[in-house]
Every structure is written in structure tokens, then in C-alpha cells.
Design goal:
Elements: H1 3-34, H2 44-53, H3 65-84, H4 100-120, H5 124-155, H6 160-168, H7 176-192, H8 211-214, H9 220-245, H10 256-282, H11 292-313
Helix pairs in contact: 1-3, 1-9, 1-10, 2-9, 3-4, 3-9, 4-5, 5-6, 5-7, 5-11, 7-9, 7-11, 9-10
Length: about 325
Amino acid sequence: MSLLGLISQLLAIIAALVLAPLLSGWVNQWRARLQNKSAPGLLQPYRVLHKLFNKESVLAEHASPLFRVVPYIVFGCMVLASAIIPTLSTDLPLSPAADAIALVGLFALARVFISLAAMDVGTAFGTLGARREMLVGFLAEPALLMVLFCASMISRSTSLTTIVETLAHRELAIYPSLLVAGVAFTMVSLAENARVPVDNPETHLELTMIHEALILEYSGRHLALLEWAASLKLFAYSCMGLALFFPWGVAEADAPFELLLALPVLIIKLAIGGIFLACVEAVSAKMRIFRVPEFLATAFLLAVIGLLVNILLGTS
């Protein structure tokens, strides 16, 4: 374990914690502009977090210890997920754990705990949101795994660092399988991050919301951690997409100069990706909850097609 590796890992965690709310603010700002609305400030997510951290947490009367500890578990899962994705460098001490299956498992673990917490207090909306969240996860996780397996077949490894190293430092080539998998990944990312057309992060209509229904009973620092975790999840998915489909700019091991350039390159790529996400949300309408299985089944089918194309073309 090298000193540069430790520095790279620490910088990756700090970048995730700092840039995640900024990415959310950037997407919200562009979404409002594209809809001809008054755009919120770019730093608004930081102000919201500051306000919530300074408020008292009010707990439901029958809340169990699980309800109190879930925000910390979910936040920890999202930080760890962001840490094992090679955002700045492939020289990460956590790289042995940076496996595609382990990453999907972290997202699933956070989903299970937040769903249990939503049902813990016994409210109707919490249970409704938990059921919908598990439905989305049940359909989205296989599609995400197929996308990751499609990239892993090219590098012959399920390690994210190996995938990035293989794709970033090969001769520039167009992989038809990754083109199809990229569409599937975009659809899964929209569903997993509660974005339009699957969910609307700004809605508070009880019969349509998914993510907001899970956190209705939280307040204060607990709500701040969950909101921060939601931003971290969007950041992690964005960085995962960049690592799989646009891996250029990620520093190699023992390359301190490349590490200095990796951060501005990452910020530029996230800014472009944020505008793309805002455009997708601006031109889309929220679909009925009964159409979500069809949407995610299409994503799974596209990911499987990408996998089959990989096998038929013998890409390696």
C-alpha cells in the first residue's frame, strides 16, 4: 500500500463528500432553467444540509433503535460506494473490494435498511414507499449487473479498477455492446436515483412519490444524512457511468501529475453529465408506477443484448 494510494483514496472520499451536493445543485439549476423557472442557487444543497444539521431530530413515538441508526448506515454505504469507484485514480487501497457485485450489494444493503426504517414507524406512506422502493430495486439490480458484466467481459475482470485501466489505456475503439449497455445504464440510473420519468425528487404528492415517502418521518440531522446520502448515490452512479463509458482522465498508479489533472477532468465530465440529466428530465414526463416494470424490463433487455453482442463479436 503506497502513500500515493492512500492520498488518492482520501482525495476520492473528500471529492465525493464535497462534490455530491454540488452535483445535485447543478442538476436542479439546469433543470429549472430548461423549464423556464427561477433557478435555485448552485450552493442551495449545502444551505439545506447546514440548516438540517442545526435542527433537532424529532422521532416518532414508536420508533425502534433501527429507525435511529439507519441514516448512518445508508450514509456509510453511499460513502463506501463512492470510495470504491475509481473517480480520480485506479491506485486505491480499497480496489480489492471494488468489485461490481460488491458495489451492487452496497446499494442493495442501503435500500433494504431504508425500507425497513420506513416501515418501522407503521405509517401508510412509509410502507407504500418501501414497497415501491423494493420493486424498483428488484428490477433495477439485475439490469445494473448485466451492464457491469458487459464491461467486465471486455476487461475479463469484475474489478472496477481493472475495467477502467483496460478501457482507458487501450486504443480508441467503438464497442457496440457498450453503446447498448450505456442506454440501459442511463435508464437504471434514472430509476435508482428517483429521477424523472420514474420518480420526481421534487414532488410531495403522496400517491406518486417513492423516495420522499421513505424519509417523511425523518428530521434534523437524520434527514440531513439521508439527503446527503441521496446526493452521494447520484454522484456514485454518475462516476460509475463515467468510469465505464468515459474512463479517460483517471490517473494510473504512481502518477502524481495525472492525479492533479484528474480532479478538474472529473468536474468537467460531471458538469456535462449533469446538463444531460437535466435535459432528460426536462423533456420527460413522470410515468405511472405501473409502467415502471416495463421501463426497467426494457433496460434489462438492452443490457442482455449488449452482453450477447459482446459474446457474438468476441470482444476481448
